[in-house]
Structure formats: structure tokens, C-alpha cells
Design a protein that fits this description.
Elements (H helix, E strand, L loop, with lengths): L1 H15 L8 E3 L6 E3 L4 H8 L4 E22 L8 E8 L2 E7 L2 E3 L1 E2 L7 E2 L4 H8 L4 E21 L8 E6 L2 E7 L1
Antiparallel strand pairs: 1-2, 3-4, 3-9, 4-5, 5-6, 7-8, 9-10, 10-11
């Protein structure tokens, strides 16, 4: 009987525990209304009122990109001389093909079939086989811009300032200072 009581009590406790949320919740001290990360600019202004100051800027979005330079030796050069073919692959897609010092959009130097800019790394591997040499690296590349808006609330009365940061119109961070 005691074992059954403990099982039921434990089940009720687990089910009644608050669920964790990734959203950050904050009560505006001037209106006593709540805002949370993910709220729109309009909702935050409705809940907290107009900020003391606003700053909006475009921020460059950068992404880490995996880069592979695949080097192949081929006999398809002038008078069947050896030419080094370099295939550059970024995030799994061919972005450039160089035969010696000449850049091309596509080539048929591979015995398994032609390759072209835009092909997958798997298609290159299937058509050209294993490269003689591979150079792997990463780079940070621009992926456009995002609009970042920062609002500052100075509530006075010895209360800490509130800084809100919006990205593309959605509240991303809440900081009290």
C-alpha cells in the first residue's frame, strides 16, 4: 500500500512540475505587464510603452562554411600533358572548377562523366573518384543582413535600465543593467 502511495505521489509531483521554456520572461516595471523573447516590436511597445531611445542598424549575417579543394591529376591537357584540376566544394556543392589556370563552369576530365558548378560533392566523387589530394578548411562568409533594433528604457527612480534587442522585428534578448 505504501509503495502504491509513493508511486502516485511521485507521478503527481512530476506532472505538476513547471515545464522549462526557452523564452525569457520579464515584467515591465512601469506597466506591470509581461514581455518575453519572441514578442514582436508592436507587442513590446504595447506592453511596456515607448522606449527612452531606439537604435536600428543592419548587421551582416555570417555563416561558417566548410570548404574543400579537391586536386585531380588528369592527362586531358594540351597534347595529353598532365593538368591539375582543382574542384572547390563549399558546404557540399561545387563552386568552381579550374583546369590548370583556366576557370570553367564544367568539365569532362573525369572518367565517370562530366562535372559542373552546382554539382554535389558526392557527384564529383562518383564521376572523378578519390582526389590525389584534398585541402579542407572553413571560412566565414556573408549570408546577407539582418535588421537589429536596440531599445533602451530608463525607468528612473533608482531602477535599473532595461535594454531590449530585436532581430528582424522579434525580441531576442532582454538585459537589465
Amino acid at each position: 500500500m505504501l509503495k502504491k502511495f509513493i508511486q502516485i505521489s511521485l507521478t503527481i509531483f512530476i506532472l505538476s512540475a513547471p515545464l522549462q521554456s526557452s523564452a525569457e520572461l520579464f515584467m515591465c516595471p512601469n506597466t506591470y505587464k509581461y514581455i518575453e523573447t519572441g514578442d514582436s516590436i508592436a507587442k513590446v511597445q504595447q506592453q511596456c510603452g515607448a522606449p527612452t531611445s531606439k537604435v536600428t542598424r543592419d548587421q551582416q549575417v555570417k555563416k561558417k562554411v566548410n570548404v574543400e579543394h579537391l586536386f585531380y591529376h588528369t592527362g586531358n591537357g594540351y597534347r595529353n600533358l598532365s593538368v591539375t584540376a582543382t574542384v572547390t566544394v563549399k558546404d557540399g556543392k561545387v563552386t568552381s572548377i579550374n583546369l590548370g589556370s583556366a576557370n570553367t563552369q564544367g568539365s569532362d576530365f573525369c572518367e565517370g562523366g562530366p562535372i559542373a558548378v552546382g554539382d554535389s560533392a558526392i557527384a564529383v566523387q562518383n564521376n572523378c573518384g578519390t582526389p590525389a589530394f584534398t585541402n579542407r578548411s572553413t571560412s566565414m562568409e556573408s549570408r546577407g543582413y539582418k535588421k537589429v533594433t536596440q531599445w533602451l528604457y530608463d525607468f528612473g527612480n533608482n531602477q535599473p535600465n532595461l535594454t531590449l534587442q530585436f532581430v528582424n522585428g522579434q525580441l531576442e534578448t532582454i538585459k537589465q543593467q
